[in-house]
Amino acid sequence: EVQLVESGGGLVKPGGSLRLSCAASGFTFSNAWMSWVRQVPGKGLEWVGRIKSKTDGGTTDYAAPVKGRFTISRDDSKDTLYLQMNSLKTEDTAVYYCTLMRSYYFYCWGQGTLVTVSS
Amino acid sequence: EIVLTQSPGTLSLSPGERATLSCRVSQSVSSSYLAWYQQKPGQAPRLLIYGASSRATGIPDRFSGSGSGTDFTLTISRLEPEDFAVYYCQQYGSSPKYTFGQGTKLEIK
Prior knowledge:
The complex is a heterodimer of chains A (119) and B (109). In chain A, 0% of the residues lie in helices and 54% in strands. Chain A is an all-beta fold and 119 residues long. In chain A, the strands form 2 sheets. In chain A, strands 2, 4, 5, 6, 9, 10 and 11 form a 7-stranded mixed β-sheet that branches. A 4-stranded antiparallel β-sheet of chain A has the order 1-3-8-7, with no helix packed on it. In chain A, strand 7 and strand 8 form a beta hairpin. Chain A is globular. In chain B, a hairpin with a 3-residue loop joins strand 5 and strand 6. Chain B contains no helices and 10 strands. Chain B has 109 residues and is mainly beta. Classes of the chains: A mainly beta (119), B mainly beta (109). Chains A and B meet through strand 5 and strand 10 of A and strand 5, strand 8 and strand 9 of B.
């Protein structure tokens, strides 16, 4: 069974940094393309960024609002995905979901971790 | 930038009725690139339909997807109590790579 478990959310001040983790199990993580998707409470879904498998180049892509501030990385030896968030803004407040991708869609989702950016 | 517009914003129906949800895309997209998700309160979204019309693993056959080009539809043939939720369409494009519609809330009438 595929499982994705996010951690690392919390309260951070504007301009601060936070690193989210996503522990994966139930599939071959090293072969997987992974994404982060976020959701402001009570609002819709927004894709944050994606990382390809190392076999496919390991490259990353980001949504415009987070490009240059957020970095996605992976540790295939630990089956773990990361989201490093720097220069956080109040508008980054959201639940952040780790997702396993298949082709062009988000096949499986974690339970999410809440990030609150507030002074 | 491709925009996905879902309608209606809220759909009020009774169990046993048929639900038809629409997703209109601002530019023509390949059917391969269109998916639908269901989200219940307090839960993560769940993939329902991919490739516009293929059901994901474990999804009941009362859920079906159709459409092409710029107009896509999610149909729930006979609503069960557990189907009342928010539904999102999503497409893969160039920039941004992945875009969601704003959602349709399906509520009990």
